[in-house]
Amino acid sequence: MAKSRARETTESIERLYVTLRHLFYRGFYKPSGVSGESLRSLLMNINPEIYGTMGVSNKIELDGLMYVLDRLPEGIEETAFVHLTSDEGFDKGSFEPIIPKKRRRLCYRIDEHQMNIEVLLGRSEIYDILTHLTFLYIEADKIRNLGFLMDDGARPKRTWRIIEEVALGEKKFSRKEKEVALIHLSSLIGRTFDETLNAYNSFGDDQNPDRLFKIIYFLGKGSLDDIQDKREREIHFSAILRERVGHHYFGEKWAHKVKEVLAQNDLHMRPLHIISANMHSVKNMLFANDALGKKQK
Known about the structure:
54% of the residues lie in helices and 9% in strands. It is α/β, with parallel strands linked by helices. It has two domains: 5-246, no CATH class; 250-292, no CATH class. It has a six-stranded mixed β-sheet. Strand 6 (148-149) and strand 7 (155-156) form a beta hairpin. 29% of the residues are buried.
C-alpha cells in the first residue's frame, strides 16, 4: 500500500532535522555537495507552502524569495561563504551590523565573499536559517539553468546579458529601457510582466531600486561559479556556536535575565505564568477573539 502524502512529509521532516543536526556538529557543508543535495531533495519532498513554486524548474518563486530575504541579511545573495556564529564579539570591531527586516539577528559582511550570521536562539534558529538557505540555493540553480546554455559551455543567453547590465549599473537606463529590461527579466524567470513589475517595486527602494535585478543576477552567478569550481558555496558553523548550543548557553542567560527583571519590579513573589512563544502567537492569544468578534469561553 502506497504511503500517504502526509506520512511521506512527516518522514522527510524527521530526516531533514537529523541531517541538519549531523551537518551542524560536523562543522560545515557544501550546498552543491552530497549533503547539500540531500537537504534539497528532502525540502522538495516537504514542499512548504511558503516556498511556493520551488519545485517548478522554469519558474522562479518571487514571493518565497521575498519571504526568505526579509529574514536573511541584505547582500547574502552575493556571498559564497555563510558562517553561522555565536555572539563572538564582532560588534567590537569596525564591521557594520546588518539586521534583516523581519528578524532581530546581527549579521556582518566580513568581506566580498563572506557573510556571518549570529545565532542566539539555538537549534531551532539554525534549522530555520539553513532551510531558508537551501531554498535560496534551489532557486539560484534554477536561475543559472534559465540564464545560461549549460550544454553549450555555459554560454549566457541574451536576456542574461541585459539583466547583468542593469544589475551592475554598467549604463544609465531610461524608463522605457528599464521596462524593456523588465520584460526580458520576466521572460527569464517564467513570470508575467505584471508579476515581475510588482516584485521589482516590492524588492526595490529609493536607495536600491534595481535590487530584484541584482538578486537574480548574483544568485545565478554564484551558482555558475560553484558548478564551474571558480568559487564553491560553503556553510560553516563556528566552534563556539557548536559548544554553546550544546550547553544551553543562551537559555541560561535568558532565564537569569527574566528572574532579574522580576526581582527589579517586585514581581518575584507573585504567582506568574511566563509565556514562552513567538510574539505573533502572544498577540493572537491576546487580541484574536476581539479581532474576530468572538467571545471567550
